[in-house]
Design a protein that fits this description.
- By secondary structure, the protein is mainly alpha-helical.
- It has 2 domains: 112 residues, no CATH class; 194 residues, no CATH class.
- The protein has a 4-stranded mixed sheet.
- Helix 6 crosses helix 13.
- The longest helix is centred in the C-terminal third of the chain and has 34 residues.
- It is elongated, with a radius of gyration of 23 Å.
- The two termini are 14 Å apart.
- The relative contact order is 0.13.
């Protein structure tokens, strides 16, 4: 994350003198440390970006409305807009803990308790009266070693350098989720099928289903599931995840959120934006007619539609790979205790 220390920070405790950054030598561990002013400015910048990205979702939620494209990430993944708004500088950066307190000493953010301790963070050492706070990477290594290992294996094995991407799925997973359903049974009941039920079923039965992503496959209808070339399971996920798969790319947002506070918030929001852009193609290529919502159509039942899908899928896969490598850089750094940055 690159944040200039010139933006006026949020209010700090009364009497707080202008802070300073610190070096790894002063801290005694491999990290840079930010003053309270710099941390407050970075938090404000992140919160403003997150608020802009979630404004529509929050307003629809207030009105009790749903959007099958833009709200998908908040229903498919167990992360709220409030949690997405929570700022973390990443495991390689410490900051003055005063940035987490209001003028009267009360916690400024939801994950700081009444004693001033922040969840999954550790405090110390203190220099010149400043308490340096950083993500507790050692606790993650100790208590979540299995999860860290699984995420590293999954991301490393699904990278473009480790596995050849397959571009022949054409987004048919969404079609398989409505195959031979009766009226009223489809997931997005407010959206009409673009071709109607009979023609949609015919596309599924004519094309080859090659979905390798477990969390897409599990929504296949009973009629469609036996037609799939794979039978994905959680145990085989690292073996099967396809670098070109839309859902594999969207899942980078899930892994980044699960890795907070080790992963910095700028990377989390980058993953969120990528996942939201991916969902657009997911639905434009689906059997649903999303034109009334202002989106286009990628008619994958035609040669031209297939070509358009693959073109956009390649672009998304390249973007996903850049994010994947950034997450892997964090995982490698946490594992070795060395601050690393992707090239």
């Amino acid at each position: 994350m690159t944040t200039q220390d010139t933006t006026p920070p949020a209010s700090l405790p009364a009497g707080t003198a202008p802070g300073r950054d610190a070096s790894s030598t002063e801290l005694g561990y491999p990290a840079e440390a930010w003053s309270a002013e710099r941390a407050a400015a970075a938090r404000a910048e992140h919160e403003a970006r997150a608020d802009a990205l979630t404004a529509g979702h929050r307003e629809r939620r207030r009105r009790g409305e749903k959007h099958p494209v833009e709200d998908f990430l908040f229903t498919y993944y167990p992360f709220s807009a409030a949690r997405l708004r929570r700022w973390h500088p990443g495991w390689g950066t410490a900051y003055d803990a005063a940035a987490d307190r209001c003028d009267d000493g009360r916690p400024r953010i939801a994950d700081v308790d009444e004693h001033g301790r922040r969840s999954w963070y550790e405090d110390g050492p203190s220099t010149e009266g400043i308490t340096w706070r950083r993500a507790d990477a050692e606790r993650y290594r100790r208590e979540r070693a299995d999860a860290l290992g699984f995420m590293h294996r999954l991301l490393a094995s699904s990278s473009l350098t480790a596995r050849r991407p397959e571009f022949g799925c054409f987004g048919l997973h969404e079609w398989a989720m409505v195959h031979r359903l009766r009226p009223g049974e489809q997931r997005h009941e407010d959206l009409p099928l673009r071709l109607g039920q009979e023609a949609t079923d015919a596309v599924v039965e004519r094309e080859q289903l090659v979905c390798s992503h477990l969390d897409a496959f599990r929504f296949f209808t009973p009629a469609a599931a036996p037609r799939n070339a794979h039978e994905p399971t959680r145990e085989r996920q690292a073996e099967l995840d396809n670098p070109a798969c839309l859902h594999v790319g969207m899942d980078l947002y899930k892994w980044a959120m699960k890795l907070t506070p080790l992963v910095d918030s700028a990377l989390v929001l980058d993953c969120f934006e990528h996942a939201r852009a991916t969902r657009v193609l997911d639905m434009e290529a689906s059997p649903y007619d999303v034109r009334p919502l202002g989106y286009g159509v990628v008619p994958i039942e035609t040669p031209a539609g297939k070509a358009e899908y693959v073109r956009r899928q390649r672009e998304l896969a390249a973007g996903a790979e850049e994010l994947r490598q950034r997450i892997l850089s964090v995982l490698d750094g946490v594992a070795t205790g060395t601050r690393t940055r992707p090239s």
